[in-house]
TrEMBL record:
This is Leucine rich repeat containing 58a. SMART domains: LRR_TYP. The keyword Nucleus does not apply. The keyword Repeat applies. PROSITE patterns: LRR (PS51450).
Length: 232
């Protein structure tokens, strides 16, 4: 088990990346030094689990454990009540890897790109403080409608994108969708005198993608209330 290197009295950021760690012990640190640590970088190691000692860094605000081999996030992560940013890209995590109580975490930014998620865990969407969710490069097939409550999300590189393109190839958009897309994307003014009532109702149901890098419009399908259909 690797021991933690010495640290000065003012250190709040720890970089322990690319050290071939398969475990980590912080037992030799005093309580005062543990309380100093606000950021911890454990990327590009050989971790198959989150070292228990990490969950005793009670003032930790930023944790990056990307590019390891984690399959599960332990219940003890709930001890990190000050954690705001959690990054665990390129591991082996899926929707069953997180504790059910994870929804009570105060995390604002969650980046789990490059893992094995097929569904977005509901505990993520129930997090009251979560603003940004990145799940690009996973195996997602569906998008729950609740995701629109987030300020930002990144779902690029998932099967649902490929499937959406194929669906659009064999199931082209209706005239209603084409009209709605044109009006919304170009911000064309309209009134009840200009358009049929059913088109106005359809336009009122449209939402803009909250991702600032995306200029797309989406509608929640009537027959599939749990899924979004994106029109870009």
């Amino acid at each position: 088990m690797a021991r933690f290197p010495s640290m000065d009295d003012k250190c709040s950021v720890l970089y322990l990346s690319r050290l071939h760690l398969d475990d980590l012990s912080l037992d030799h640190l005093t309580d005062s030094k543990r309380q100093q640590i606000q950021q911890l970088h454990l990327t590009y190691n050989r971790l198959s689990f989150l070292p228990p000692s990490v969950c005793f860094l009670f003032n930790l605000e930023y944790l990056d454990i990307s590019n390891n081999a984690l399959t599960v996030i332990p219940d003890d992560i709930m001890r990190l009540t000050n954690l705001k940013t959690f990054v665990a890209k390129n591991n082996l995590l899926d929707e069953s890897s997180f504790p059910k109580e994870f929804e009570r975490m105060q995390v604002e930014t969650l980046n789990l790109s490059g893992n094995r998620f097929e569904d977005i865990p509901m505990q993520f969407l129930k997090m009251t403080t979560l603003q940004s969710l990145s799940l690009g490069g996973n195996r997602l097939k569906n998008i729950p409608a609740e995701i629109e409550n987030l300020t930002r999300y990144d779902l690029r590189g998932n099967p649902l994108v490929v499937r959406f393109i194929k669906d659009m190839t064999y199931d082209p958009p209706s005239l209603m969708e084409l009209a709605g897309r044109t009006i919304k994307s170009q911000n064309l003014p309209f009134s009840s005198c200009d358009l049929p009532s059913n088109l106005i109702h359809y336009l009122n149901l449209a939402s803009e993608c909250p991702n600032p890098k995306c200029a797309g419009i989406f509608w929640v399908q009537y027959q599939l209330p749990q899924l979004m259909r994106f029109v870009v």
